[in-house]
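Q: Got one fold?
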Amino acid sequence: MKAQRLATEHEATFVLVFDKDDEPVEGIAAFAREQRLGAGHFTGIGAFSDLVVGYFDRERRDYKRITIAEQVEVLSLVGDIAVDGEEPRVHAHVVVGKADGSAHGGHLLEAHVWPTLEVVLIQTPEPLRKRFDPDTGLALISIED
């Protein structure tokens, strides 16, 4: 992965360019740790050779894993970064297009880039924190007054 900082005022903007076979969820998380990002949001386009998306099952309080084992175009990748404990956590959703024109999407759990993925990440100046929500079993962004 290569990265370039685009802005330096109150927000910092970075471009992350992922290479073939990179895993973007862990790659974005590693970049956030290296840069000590406390909050941010990102968008991306590109393609994957395979991926796993999740659909949150409320009754099980866990993600149903949906494997897509074929080349797809990343039509939309959106997400945020917030601190969970001491570590930044990536929350990403994706919509991908298959060769037949059908689209599939969900919570991005894992993927492999092929041939590239271009992500624009904007660091926001104030950190966001995640807190465990016992009703859902999820770590959700907590906005406190």
About this structure: The first helix runs from residue 24 to 35. The chain has one domain: 2-133. Residues 55 and 64 are 5 Å apart (CA to CA).
